């Protein structure tokens, strides 16, 4: 077998849901030949209609890469099949769990020398081909996890696939990947669901007291339970490890609050939270602290927000972030505008001069 | 002693931080006579400068109501003192914990027949008089918790105080209040801090994978640890009770994931999360599901957001909420506009016609 050229001409995508369709759209926009398949003919037809690729033809040349864009549970069989059908193709997938999908693929017969796991850190709260977007992966991190003994050129090729889709490939071991997503995605999902679960049987006059903090903390609890159950099971070891440390922290805090534990636990836990939160990158990779906030009260009427943004635009100031704080039943809202520190005075003065109700 | 008239003419506020100052500003805007005190003369002077009230004078008439706007730990002594100084005044506070503050006030000598706890459900991430706003309480819920044997007119007067500040008084027992805030505010704070704490020692390439979900889940972890330690200690029993049920749920899920528990636990936990999340009121008391979302991709340049909001305004469509999804390092953002379902088609078509990159 000759080592493959890392250049990619032909990609075959199995599974045309949100991610598979987006992948096809991303590759088609730069003229890559994309063939598609899906067990559900209607879903496949929809992805083809959207321009994500074409059906395979019996006379087609073999693809350079096959991408399993299926739930984790099907990745193994799809890649083992593809490995047999196309003995030269690089095999990859886009599942959010890497260790178990790799083990499953190898157990099912996928060749380890051509297997490179992948996980584009992108997604939407919608699903299906209709949610697909050619730019879904633009500037996102795309984690690349080569199997043991994988040929270096295969890894290069999957990195190239990520770049062709507009993403930034980052190579990690399957274990490091799974530990990372357990912390930044899977454990947060469990905590959001657990917290939101407290509200199921709460009296109405408890629920009505909910504020923005609770809303933020439970937003992702609305995600699809079936999909998430599968993700959590496939990443069970890493998720359990993170949740176990969280449970330990909560036990220490409960003991401290009851007077039976170390009286520094509560303060420590809260302080570590401040330190950890400060490490989360904000927009463009900057820390949240890289921006300052101007708060403006606006009436809740058509055009009010617009006039605020027009004013900021006319001042030549770019808004780095916008947060709207709603108040239950109140016909107005406090708008927090995040901007670079060097323009904050100009924004504050400019808006005040134009009659805006600037609060801070 | 003659029963007091529920009408309020004179209010004395002890503590002129964010809440005390806002209270003064709210009452001053309708002409109530407000006197202020604070242990810190500089802070008091600042609140007076801002127009939140005046210093007390030895010839002043007694206040109708005294409000302790101090941390929970000082409420008791402040109200006991005030009870001795003004034997006819109604005594209230604005602390976020009710049972312990009531017990502490009664133990310190505050008269139970004049004591009514209060908790306006409003706050900001800033502190100090400068953050004060006259409309901080507008349309907010203000929980009112009469002490045992409290005179009904005292409760009426505290309800009236809440209304004068623009809020909606809601009467609850101290126990119900504390259980409610443990669920909707104190436990979420602990979970946010605990989760954010995982990031303190995480490698950089873990932190860089953080997405919007983690950002939302850890935003409140940036709050003041000292203030929160006090709140958690004062509401220890209720907070521990909620955290204990959360720990139980997490144990069940960990057992299920390890194969040693009930295999329905994970699915149940995730499904209860969906049900609980759906109960949280959105803007104007509507459920989040009462709105539909149009997603638009805009360039990250001055004026881009403005042109979008101008277009929505010109279509006569009110935006109920706006969410900006940033992508690390990406010079564009996906803007989710929430609108009433009956205008969604008009918005989508109108924006598309004007050349906006409407994604869903």
Task: Find the structural class of chain A using helix and strand composition.
Answer: alpha/beta
Please trace the helix and strand order of chain A, writing H or E for each element.
Answer: EHEHEEHEHEEHEHHHHHHEHEEHE
The CATH homologous superfamily of the largest domain in chain A is called NAD(P)-binding Rossmann-like Domain
CATH topology-level fold name of the largest domain in chain A: Rossmann fold
The figure for the number of domains of chain A is 3
Oligomer: homodimer
User: Quick one: overall form of chain A?
Assistant: globular
For the biggest β-sheet of chain A, the strand order reads 3-2-1-4-5-6-7-8
Q: In terms of per-residue confidence, which ranges of chain A show pLDDT below 50 for 5 or more consecutive residues?
A: 283-288
What is the topology?
The structure is a homodimer of 360-residue chains.
Chain A: E1 10-14, H1 18-28, E2 33-37, H2 41-49, E3 54-55, E4 65-68, H3 72-85, E5 90-93, H4 99-108, E6 115-120, E7 141-146, H5 152-164, E8 168-171, H6 174-197, H7 204-207, H8 212-218, H9 225-234, H10 236-257, H11 265-278, E9 292-299, H12 304-314, E10 321-326, E11 332-339, H13 344-353, E12 357-358
Parallel strand pairs in A: 1-2, 1-4, 2-3, 4-5, 5-6, 7-8
Antiparallel strand pairs in A: 6-7, 9-11, 9-12, 10-11
Helix pairs in contact in A: 3-4, 6-10
């Amino acid at each position: 077998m000759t080592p493959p050229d890392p250049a990619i001409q032909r990609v075959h995508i199995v599974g045309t849901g949100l991610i598979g369709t987006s992948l096809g759209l991303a590759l088609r926009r730069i003229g890559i030949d994309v063939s598609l398949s899906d067990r559900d003919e209607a879903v496949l037809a929809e992805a083809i209609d959207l321009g994500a690729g074409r059906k395979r033809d019996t006379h087609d040349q073999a693809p350079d890469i096959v991408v399993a864009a299926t739930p984790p549970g099907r990745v193994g069989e799809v890649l083992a099949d593809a490995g047999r059908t196309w003995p030269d193709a690089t095999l990859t997938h886009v599942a959010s769990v890497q260790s178990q999908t790799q083990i499953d693929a190898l157990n099912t017969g996928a060749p380890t020398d051509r297997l490179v796991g992948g996980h584009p850190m992108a997604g939407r709260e919608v699903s299906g081909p209709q949610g697909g977007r050619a730019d879904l992966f633009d500037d996102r991190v795309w984690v690349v996890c080569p199997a043991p003994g994988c040929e270096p050129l295969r890894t290069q090729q999957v990195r190239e696939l990520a770049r062709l889709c507009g993403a930034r490939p980052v190579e990690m071991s399957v274990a490091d990947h799974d530990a990372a997503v357990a912390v930044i995605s899977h454990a947060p999902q469990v905590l959001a669901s657990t917290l939101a679960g407290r509200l199921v049987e709460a009296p109405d006059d408890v629920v009505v007291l909910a504020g923005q903090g609770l809303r933020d903390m439970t937003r992702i609890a609305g995600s699809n339970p079936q999909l998430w159950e599968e993700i959590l099971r496939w990443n069970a070891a890493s998720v359990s490890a993170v949740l176990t440390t969280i449970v330990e922290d909560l036990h220490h805090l409960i003991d401290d609050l009851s007077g039976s534990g170390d009286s520094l636990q509560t303060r420590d836990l809260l302080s570590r939270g401040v330190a950890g939160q400060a490490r989360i990158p904000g927009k463009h990779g900057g820390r949240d602290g890289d921006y300052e906030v101007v708060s403006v009260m606006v009436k809740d009427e058509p055009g009010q927000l617009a006039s605020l943004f027009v004013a900021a635009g006319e001042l030549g100031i770019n808004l780095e972030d916008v947060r709207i704080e709603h108040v239950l039943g109140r016909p107005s809202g406090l708008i927090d505008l995040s901007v670079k520190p060097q323009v904050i005075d100009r924004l504050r003065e400019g808006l005040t001069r134009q009659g805006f109700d600037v609060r801070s």
